[in-house]
C-alpha cells in the first residue's frame, strides 16, 4: 500500500471509543502508522475541536435548508457536501484557526 501523504502526520482526536478500536491500534503499529502523531483533546472541548466548525459549516452552508426524501438521499447529499468541502481548504483552515491552532 502506498501513501499519498509524505512525512509525519498529526492527528488531533477527541478520544471517542471508536478511536481506540483494535483496528486503529493495529494500524498504528504498522510502518505507515509509525508516521502518525496523536494529540488527544480534553474530554469535552468542542471549542478546541476543528471538526465542530466543519460540521457547523456543512449543516449551515453546504446543506442549509436541505430537505431530503429519505436516509439514502441524506447520505448522498452529505457525501456531495463533504466532497465539495474537500476543495475549500480555506474553510478547513479557518475551522482550525478558530480553535487557536497555528497552520
Overview of the molecule:
The protein is mainly α and 103 residues long. The protein has two domains: 9-40, no CATH class; 47-98, no CATH class. The chain contains four helices and two strands; from the N terminus they run E-H-E-H-H-H. The protein has helices at residues 22-28, 50-62, 71-86, 89-98, and strands at residues 9-13, 36-40. It has a two-stranded parallel ribbon with strand order 1-2. Strand 1 (9-13), helix 1 and strand 2 form a beta-alpha-beta unit. The longest helix has 16 residues, at 71-86. The model has no long low-confidence stretch (mean pLDDT 88).
SSE pattern: EHEHHH
**What's the shape?**
globular
Compute the separation of the termini in Å.
28 Å
**Overall radius of gyration:** 16 Å
Give the tally of structural domains.
2
The tally of beta strands, per DSSP, is 2
Mean residue pLDDT: 88
How does the major sheet shape up? Answer: 2 strands, parallel
Tell me what portion of residues adopts beta-strand conformation. Answer: 5-15%
Helices and strands: which structural class?
Answer: mainly alpha
Major beta sheet, strand line-up: 1-2
Poorly predicted segments:
none
Q: What share of the residues lie within helices?
A: 40-55%
Task: State the helix count.
Answer: 4
Amino acid at each position: 500500500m502506498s501513501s499519498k501523504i509524505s512525512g509525519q502526520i498529526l492527528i488531533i482526536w477527541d478520544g471517542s471509543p471508536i478511536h481506540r478500536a483494535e483496528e486503529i491500534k493495529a494500524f498504528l503499529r504498522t510502518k505507515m502508522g509509525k508516521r502518525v502523531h496523536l494529540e488527544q483533546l480534553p474530554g469535552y472541548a468542542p471549542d478546541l475541536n476543528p471538526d465542530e466548525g466543519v460540521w457547523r459549516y456543512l449543516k449551515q452552508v453546504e446543506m442549509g435548508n436541505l430537505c431530503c426524501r429519505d436516509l439514502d438521499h441524506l447520505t448522498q447529499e452529505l457525501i456531495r457536501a463533504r466532497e465539495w468541502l474537500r476543495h475549500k481548504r480555506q474553510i478547513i483552515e479557518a475551522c482550525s484557526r478558530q480553535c487557536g491552532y497555528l497552520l
